[in-house]
Amino acid sequence: MPRGRYSLHDPHDHAPLGEEHFQCAPGPSGWRYVAQRTSPSGDHTGSVDLTLDELGRPLRVELHASSWQVRGAALEGVTWVRTDPTGEHATEGNVRAHSFTGASPAFLVAVSRLLRLEPGAGAVRVRLVAFTDPVLAPLTLDQSWALLDRTGHATDTGPLIVDEYQVSEVDTGEVRTIHIAGDVVLAAPGIELEHLESPPSSFAA
After folding, report:
1. pLDDT by residue (tens digit) across 119-131?
2. Between the CA of residue 70 and those of 15, 34, 115, 173, what are the distances in Å?
3. Distant-in-sequence, close-in-space partners of 113: CB < 8 Å, separation ≥ 6
4. SS3 string of the chain?
5. C-alpha distances in Å from residue 82, one per residue of 34, 70, 139
6. Integer CA distances (angstroms), 143 to 10, 13, 118, in order
7. Tens of pLDDT along 51-80?
């Protein structure tokens, strides 16, 4: 069960945004990721709880940030309920999308698991609902994912398989390169893996 810490920063001006302390593991239903988020000063700012089924679809997602809360799942596309800080008002949403995304590195792992791309197979377009900081506002967007390369690296605990993805924002044309090993993001714009207590888990085929 990997446990570790990501540092998060603005990918454009590199301003620190805080840290995400996480643990994750495959399970009977698929994969689960839980994390606590902190500000650059160390204050608690939110949490992430994401469970995928064996096909990579979101069985359950629960996000907290700035006293806002979102709960969602794959249902007729994706469906969610967003609750305001007072708890008095909740709004429901539903979009014909494939999955969710957001600031957490967990969502990069989730989309890669959902698409299951092979190197050189070409880009695949995916529609996602992003919950944007700081108040988890929903935004529907389209991305193009391509698996550029898959390489093995020798480690003390055995070979580490690293996938290199190219992710393009369809609306803006912005292109990012993301490196994922199993269920851990090794590097991505705005995300740095600062500490990892155990090797990434490998997904079953």
Report:
1. 988 999 999 999 9
2. 26, 15, 24, 28
3. 31, 52, 56, 183, 203
4. CCEEEEEEECCCCCCEEEEEEEEEEECCCEEEEEEEEECCCCCEEEEEEEEEECCCCEEEEEEEECCEEEEEEECCCEEEEEECCCCCCEEEEEECCCEEEECCCHHHHHHHHHHCCCCCCCCEEEEEEEEECCCCEEEEEEEEEEEEEEEEEEECCEEEEEEEEEEEECCCCCEEEEEEECCEEEEECCEEEEEECCCCCCCCC
5. 19, 4, 13
6. 19, 23, 17
7. 999 999 999 999 999 899 999 999 999 999
Residue type, 4: G
Name the token pair of 200: 């990434």
